[in-house]
Amino acid sequence: MQLSTFLIQLLNSVQYGMLLFLIASGLTLTFGVMGIINLAHGAFFMIGAYLAFQFTRFWGWPLPAAYAGAVLAVVVLGACVERTILAPLANRDHLDQVLVTYGLILIFDELAVIGWGKDVLPAEIPALLRGSVQLGDMVVYPVYRLVLAGVGLLCAVGLYLIVAKTRLGMIVRAGSFDRSMVRALGINVSPIFSMVFGLGAALAALAGVLAAPILSVSPGMGDKIIIIAFVVVVIGGIGSIKGAFVGALLVGLFDSFGKILFPTVSSLIIYALMAAVLVWRPRGLFGKTA
Amino acid sequence: MRPVTIIAAIVVAAMLVAIPLFHNAFLTAHATRILIYVIFAMSLDLLVGYCGMVSLGHAAFFGIAAYTTALLSAKAGIANILIGLPLSMLAAAAGALVIGLLTLRTSGIYFIMATLAFAQMLHFLVNDSDFFGGSDGILLLTRFRASVGNTVLLDLGNATTRYYTALVATSVAFAGLALLVRSPFGRILQGLKSNEQRMRALGYPVARYKLGCFVIGGTLAGLAGHLYATLTSLADPSILDWLHSAQVLMMVIIGGLGTLIGSAIGAFLLIELIDQSAELTDHWKLIVGVVVIAVTMFGRGGLVGLASLLRTSVFGARASA
Amino acid sequence: MNDKQILMETKSLSKNFGNLAAVRDVSLQVYEGEIHAIIGPNGAGKTTFLNLLSGELPASSGALYFDGSEVTDWRPDRLARAGMGRSFQHSSVFEQLSVRENVRLAAQTQFPNSFGLFRPAESYADVGRRVEEVFGEVALEWSSGARAGEISHGEQRQLEIAMLLALSPKLMLLDEPTSGMSRNETLELIELLRRISERHTLVLVEHDMDVVFQLADRITVLVNGSVLASGPPAAVREDVAVRTAYLGTQ
């Protein structure tokens, strides 16, 4: 492999990995802290993408307003869903949560079809960020993807700081270790859970907004990416932001290099990776051991 | 069993046997499809309802069997059930063994996600490969038949034959599962669901039983998958999609976990719900989504649970067995 | 006592959780047929120690011997099959299943031919007989058809012991068997344990000193994870270090 190819794939890995991290971090927090399986998490990703498209293309909003608006709208939607449907089910079987969130997937996917039809929407890279940039003397890489990776890294750092340095973060860490204990300590968990859920939804929506120009915006996009996010969470370990970060990068790496080295089976490689991790560490790389 | 139940069972059985006599092609095909999903749902109920293993990847074994059937027909020209059925079920069993060995190392949420991901892996495998027909899938070349030498015992080209074959298969599967759950093996599974730590402390080699249950469930899903392929003459990637696994899981939960008959009812109800909604509107997913959410939030124990709740409130509590 | 066999022995058994030494260097012997009580203040590491014995927790260092073999890294199910039965601090029974089924599942383990796939579980007469025997031995009055999750706390403790009996274990490890029981229930349990100890070896973790001094042949005192004293009840009661530890911590 040429060095330039290697470097480009490396950059692709980081970019894809950061995208996955944005989605997986919310998923892992919801699982780990709230104990809720949310199969419909991909819907936040999808709705973020659709709304950003709507705001910019159809309503002509300036970019920052459109992006912020899309993320905000998803957060509000997420809060509604969490309060009305998920919170009442927090103590129920995982099965009930699976059912309900599956119902949500059906509803959201269909709403997207009703709103924008079944075809792929032609989302474009914002004019400001088009083109490529020269890195060193070997690599020419699209600006937009660099920005995406950069935003993802910023969010990762931000999330790490929140979890490691704030009181909210301390409760999150404690909660993902022993949920009932946190409750027993008299800490009012409801608003905290809502905040965590909202944060996760916001990150997924941000991912959708950013990914829209490079992935295809269509009603099934949330279902497709959520599976990969699950793989990231299994590999990284439930409830661990660090795990989501490392897992996302690993998946990004294996996926990008896999496409070049083993094109025929490239889509299988990340599952083989997951299988290998499961054999070695059934709770993921950073998940709490039984 | 109480007299009411026995009478109901006889009535239902009579109705099932009588379906082709209406000479309604749509009804017969529709009923055949429902029966196939009854087998599929019951096989998942064994895992989820009796043993407590929530799998979101059960469609993997359905799909393995369906694709095996299709491949036998399209690539090897085999159209004999007596060969196709055992081979498909064997392939499904092998798949269940491998996936089980890998995923049963995990539990809880990890298990759910791992099973889901492995099934999705198979989906991509067949979707991206020419050998497996890509996104169009593989068409079966001819209808299957059961033949020994030159004698044809069953010709699945006939819709009525297909229906009765499915009915027999469903009955055998139901009887087998009913015996299994009352057997010592079945009781062990229920003990595992109730308190795994206690089972270990009693000396049971837990992993072995879970794997056994997983493989049996996968094999029966394979039976359903084979019948599906012979019914539709097609095996395509959508049957391996995780949404398909979620659908059959819904059937089990809606009907009531841990009661085989409940899964049968759940399969019937969900298919009817989807089909009727699809008749009403293109946007049937909205209706199904809302119904599913409503049933889950307001109905405890699925429909069989609701039914038993009704029975208790009307007839008073029964002493437990 | 001297010509009795050692059924179980630990040699310098230790368990650390990170920097916390929960069990330190514990060496003790349990003789066949005896009732051996383990006592100590809260947080002394008694339950952790029991978890090490039954395989629920892997030891950080040291060795465990049972019935002549070294079993240090054995998992709970293997130890159970070798003849070790265990009750838990919070009764671990099958709450969704009937009382009878609880005992039946335990009894079934002793009859290897009863693991069939197609005959109904009830049709195995030998397992059924064993279940009846156990009910007779335990001599308690609850309806065997009730769900284990619905009987009283004290009855659940008794059910757990019934399940252990059905295992015909060589050694029974009981974690605070009388906790949460009324005075009457405790007296009944003491009688039951006395009966059982005629044919089984018992290791009890207990807080109730009446129970301990009425039943135990030997007592080991654990404080902060280490053995403070070990021996016959009279000796332990007089031991200066023990008196200090208990009076000091009151």
Describe how the helices and strands are arranged:
The complex is a heterotrimer of chains A (about 290), B (about 325) and C (about 250).
Chain A: H1 3-34, H2 41-58, H3 63-86, H4 94-116, E1 132-135, E2 139-142, H5 143-165, H6 167-177, H7 179-184, H8 189-211, H9 221-236, H10 241-261, H11 266-280
Antiparallel strand pairs in A: 1-2
Helix pairs in contact in A: 1-5, 1-6, 1-8, 1-9, 1-10, 2-3, 2-4, 2-8, 2-9, 3-8, 5-6, 9-10, 9-11, 10-11
Chain B: H1 3-18, H2 25-50, H3 59-76, H4 81-103, H5 108-127, E1 138-139, E2 145-148, E3 151-155, H6 159-182, H7 184-194, H8 196-201, H9 206-232, E4 234-235, H10 242-255, H11 260-280, H12 284-298, H13 302-315
Antiparallel strand pairs in B: 1-4, 2-3
Chain C: E1 6-17, E2 20-31, E3 35-39, H1 46-53, E4 61-66, E5 69-70, H2 76-82, E6 84-87, H3 99-108, H4 125-138, H5 153-166, E7 171-175, H6 183-196, E8 201-205, H7 209-215, E9 218-223, E10 226-231, H8 233-238, H9 240-249
Parallel strand pairs in C: 3-8, 3-9, 6-7, 7-8
Antiparallel strand pairs in C: 1-2, 1-4, 4-5, 9-10
Helix percentage of chain A: over 70%
What oligomerization state is this entry in?
Answer: heterotrimer
Question: Based on DSSP secondary structure assignment, what is the total number of beta strands of chain A?
Answer: 2
Which regions of chain A contain 5 or more consecutive residues with pLDDT less than 50? none
Please report the number of helical segments of chain A: 11
Question: Care to describe what's here?
Answer:
The complex is a heterotrimer of chains A (290), B (321) and C (250). Chain A contains 11 helices and 2 strands. By secondary structure, chain A is mainly α. The mean pLDDT of chain A is 87. Chain B has a domain at 24-241. Helix content of chain B is 73%, strand content 4%. Chain B has helices spanning 3-18, 25-50, 59-76, 81-103, 108-127, 159-182, 184-194, 196-201, 206-232, 242-255, 260-280, 284-298, 302-315; strands at residues 138-139, 145-148, 151-155, 234-235. Chain B has a two-stranded antiparallel sheet with strand order 1-4. In chain B, strands 2-3 form a two-stranded antiparallel ribbon. The longest helix of chain B is centred in the C-terminal third of the chain and has 27 residues, at 206-232. Chain B is globular and about 55 Å long. Chain C has one domain: 3-Layer(aba) Sandwich (Rossmann fold). Chain C is built from 9 helices and 10 strands. Chains in contact: A-B, B-C.
